[in-house]
């Protein structure tokens, strides 16, 4: 009887570190990437906060959110002008703002003075978004769209690579290697929930995998950001999981914020409002300081 | 205490059938799509078989395999000229044959007289592949790459949509709707294994989800194909799971075949060889007849 | 950086075969246990069928079902007099028949002349059930209740060990070893569905793991039975998954049968009725013959 | 086409709160159980810490650990005299200390003056353990061994109910209801890792589910404890996950501590040593204070 003790695609081996993702792998246990994006330091004491609505619904909304989250302490404004939807039909409410949304983000970025992260979904929009955004976000559904990763990498812009909800750590680091191999070193990993046998609400589909924070940091020098909003899909759990993420060692925190969560264009169960966000930033800073870091 | 009994993204509801994937959904319990591709009927008594190597390694290989699988009863030749790999580095052995491989497939198709299915991974190659192949395969990692689905759909060519290893049935049918909404009705679904908490070998990462065959067929009129080779990743399990797929009601079967499995360029643990394939086709036909269908 | 390549509790290794479950492990690839229970052969050509209601609701019900399933070809009558429920409250309808149910099963066994399998849930009832039943069933929730396994094993009665819905193949074989080590060799494994990230209906919680059939048979000589009723929890999927189980190589099939499924005391979505069962037995026999075995 | 929108066994509904686990369910959002065990308050500001070795290997070991963890701030000594093992064979090293181990725990409890929690695995040992221990631990593999839950509940002793690695929140709360229905109200829930499709090391089998902390606390008034040692199975991840658990709102923390982790009788990859524990307690206290609670 033969039992093969190799396990392709399942767990990380020494060979992976050397041959599969050598650029992503740490050179030594203390190795940690530090880089600056729009003047904000990643990989150091600071835990940068990305905040904003799921979608750039209107010019007014995004300007208002930009003002509020900046004042509350956020380092980056997030918001999608392009948004992957599971089904091809969109109600009026769900309409993507697309090129117009990118212009609204540009205006918010300039007027409010807050750098911007936004998702790109298609190769043809890469130049448009790369020209405006400070960080290009690659969504979880594109995590293993390898030619797309390469195309984004070639812009030279910093990239946040969201983990697919079904991907292993090995898959995720392999995808990041596709970006680094192009000479683009400012890569940020973002955990946003994984599909598991049992979630805890009928409305919740994912589980925030905080164990991947120390697990990834043991292997890679890249910063690891946590997104508790998409993972929990449930407002009351966002704050405890954000604080837990900070305590687990996250290198950044992405929070969905909307002035009127119940009337958000998409996923109205998950954003927190301005006052909740203000409070959360303060609480995150206290927890961050308890673990030797800072949010503010 | 509020408990929301809606479950976005988790399970299929009546609303989904009517508003999320109305084109994919059956109109009535007996509704089943029938269509013909290269003279092969889908959705009827016949269970078409797709066979061939993981990769189009050389002209000789693909011609040889085409001859053998056709003689054994396969209806389509499969083989990848473009191949998504988890990591950006390829040994010489793993080199994709790319445009050259497409030409070799074309030659095999014409000389041997067997229609071809092959994967397209990038928008820029869609015209090349749509022009040669009888069916365009969209790989699991691109299942929710929505602009790409749309671009493939617009070619008008039949499309096989592989299920992502982390995707729900609802996700998968939603992705198929993106193709049908473009007026392209020849869509084939393909189950190829899902990630689960416990697989059964260190080398096996997925579990073939045969329950999805009756589950999908209860909801959609589209044919459902099963790929036991990628799912099991282990040669000895391919035959039992192929037979089980036939018995479960699969509308097609995709089998990886290589003249010399141990020396296959990729995934050498999963292909079966010519004589195993010949035997399997016969056994599949016997089981198919036991459930009122046929392979030969 | 250290990466430990051992994987305790995850996958099966050569050491496991030799040191963890040597009695359960095959001695050579052809090794397969054959034994007889109440005159029914296990591990040979025959695929014995276990049929009956979830619960022994009344004397009349169990006598009626015993008659019907025997006539249709079932080899064993199944039915629970004791039933683990997730919550401590039972409506009148759900009342266990307990000792009385055991007497009703005894009467059905004798009058109808069909051997019986029933679950034991508590050590104190082992003697009562071991004295009446032909096979003792250990439910999935007790799969790793090791002292209980030992106590059941010591009766010397044949035992069906259901796999826990969260257990790996390694866990399951380890549990079986606890029975064999007591000198009890008539152990039957039963797969009844595993918890996975995505099931296919709001009412379905498990996925029938048919891949475990060849996977278990590659490692162990013990017969592997499949229970599609509990796994699918949905009547229309029972027949296709039963047929698939046969084709995958199952050594037995457990089917929930109730004269009036909608009014079954528990789990009314999963049993099939008498005429569906009759038809299914015939279809299973046809598929069994297609793979060189038989049900009738 | 019928789609049933009920989901038995999958997610928690309003009916569950009222009819399935009314004693476990909160009466109002602010409802939280407070009770005292051996003078240690649960459900208040304090986050009690349970520390000790996996197994009570020897009298010397347990006395030494009791002294050290008490001095470092632990509130309870943990240690197993009885230990469920996946396989029936134990090397000398793995021998359970059983009744003798219970006596050693009693001695440590009295001499060092630290209350004790230990697992009971069999009904016949309940009186012995209930008489000595301050808290009875029910292991994850017995979580749904309902008669056993009832028997433990009837002792009137406080009970810690570990979640099975495959169980949903609903399963777990249902199991807890079996204890409360016996009039035993001092029930502590303990999360210890769940089986998921992708863990992050070959040696790690589980993922610590911290999302269940706010999820459980939203539904139940019972305290929720976190065990990062068994979940991570990897020493370097214990501290970050313990801190994360505190930040997520855990009502208690269970940490495996051994004077010489590499030579621990079982699971040598997971315990931390004395100095690591001392430091961790201090760090947990700092994080606890950052979220308005305390460990010391």
Structure notes:
The structure is a homotetramer of 296-residue chains. The first copy, chain A, has 296 residues and is an alpha/beta fold. In chain A, 36% of the residues lie in helices and 14% in strands. Chain A has 10 helices and 12 strands. In chain A, strands 3-4-5-6-7-8-11-12 form an 8-stranded parallel β-barrel, surrounded by 7 helices. A two-stranded antiparallel sheet of chain A has the order 1-2. A two-stranded antiparallel ribbon of chain A has the order 9-10. In chain A, helix 2 packs parallel to helix 10. The longest helix of chain A is centred in the C-terminal third of the chain and has 17 residues. Chain A starts with 13 loop residues before the first helix and ends in a 6-residue tail after the last helix. At the A-B interface, helix 5 and helix 6 of A face helix 5 and helix 6 of B.
Compute the CA-based radius of gyration of chain A: 18 Å
Main beta sheet of chain A, described?
A: 8 strands, parallel, barrel
How are the strands of the biggest sheet of chain A laid out side by side?
Answer: 3-4-5-6-7-8-11-12
Approximate shape of chain A: globular
* Elements of chain A, N to C (H/E): HEEEHEHEHEHEHEEEHEHHEH
- Chain pair with largest interface: A-B, 49 and 49 residues
Report how far apart the termini of chain A are.
59 Å
Number of strands of chain A: 12
Q: What portion of residues of chain A belong to β-strands?
A: 5-15%
Question: What integer is the average pLDDT of chain A?
Answer: 94
Structural class of chain A: alpha/beta
**Fraction of residues in helix of chain A:** 25-40%
* Unreliable segments of 5+ consecutive residues of chain A: 1-5
Oligomer: homotetramer
Counting DSSP H or I runs of 4 or more residues, the number of helices of chain A is: 10
